Each structure stands twice: as structure tokens, then as C-alpha cells.
Amino acid sequence: MNNRDTIQSILKTAKTGSLGTVGDDNVPFVSLVTVASMEPQSLILLLSSLAKHTQNLTYCSKCSLLLAESASESAHPLAGVRVTMTGNMARIKRGEDADARAIFLSTHPDASMYADFGDFGFFELRIKQAHLVAGFGRIQTLAASELLT
After folding, report:
1. Coiled-coil segments, which residues (predicted)?
2. Is the CATH code 3.40.50.300 the one for domain 3-147?
3. Cα-Cα-Cα-Cα dihedral sign, residues 35, 38, 42, 47
4. What separation in angstroms does the CA of 41 have from each of 4, 16, 59, 84?
5. DSSP letter (8 states) at residue 10
6. Residue 80 and residue 59: Cα distance in Å, rounded?
7. In the chain, what are the domain boundaries?
8. pLDDT in tens, 28-68
């Protein structure tokens, strides 16, 4: 499997990731979030405006998102394949979020319990780069355009 295919596989199968944001205090902040793959160059998240990461994204839309391939319990955690996406996060306007909603809720059906709460909204991470670490000597950074098949 080539590096692009490895990244696409992780994007399609990952359900959680570590979202890195920076707020108005210029201090990095990382939190666990749920994700769903929209297309090879974007990911969908359902975020609450009450969350620190969402408040940070209001200040600065630049962010990173680390996704890791599921590793077995016996494997060393740094032996697993992982990819960090960098890009900009944008809220999808209510009424224009039907596709994002369908994709996200098909991946996370339990989220339907709170997806319509007033403080929640769908966000799209528009990937600019993907940095893959897939083992010794297998590290590569790809531009978003290189993720297309």
C-alpha cells in the first residue's frame, strides 16, 4: 500500500482524533473529538460552542488533527500508523449541512441524540497537508491535492 492509500485508509476508518487548536492566549490546546470522512480532502466534526476547542477555532481557524490506526493492545503505541492533518476548520451553516450531517451520523449514530442541540454544529476540516508516520523510514508529508485518487 502506498502512502496516499495508507492516509486515505486512516481517514476513512478513524472515528476519533486529537484536535489541536490555539486560542486568544496563544497556548496550544488538544482535545479528543469524533470525526467522519467527507472526502479525501476534508473531515467532518460535530462540535459544541461550549467546548474550549470550538472557542479557539473562533479565534483561529488553523488547526491540526491527529488520527491513528487502531493498534492491538500488545503493540507499542508508537509502532502504529498515524497521520496528522493540518488545515482550516470552518463551521457549516445550518441548512447547508445536510450532507455533512448524514455522513457524520452514519459514522456516529449515537450523536443524533445531541446533534440538534442549539450549541452544536457541524464543522469541516479542509486539509492542507497530511503528515504520515507509518514506521521506520516511512514518513511523508503530502499536500491535499496529492490525496486525490
Report:
1. none
2. no
3. negative
4. 12, 17, 23, 13
5. H
6. 33
7. 3-147
8. 999 999 999 987 788 999 999 999 999 999 999 999 999 99
